[in-house]
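[job 4471] stage=fold_predict status=RUNNING
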Amino acid sequence: MKMQENPGKEIIKALKIYGDEIVRQNGSHILITTTKNGEHHLAR
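[job 4471] inference complete, writing structure tokens
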């Protein structure tokens, strides 16, 4: 049986297309940032 890919990885791939980048990762927690319209952070 093949396990499904983590949906979080798909979200990160999509965000990278729009210019977001991973700043750091601690276990399953990821901090993503973008500089579009000022600097914004997204924690997952």
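[job 4471] summary: The beta strands are 21-26, 29-34, 40-43.
[job 4471] exit 0
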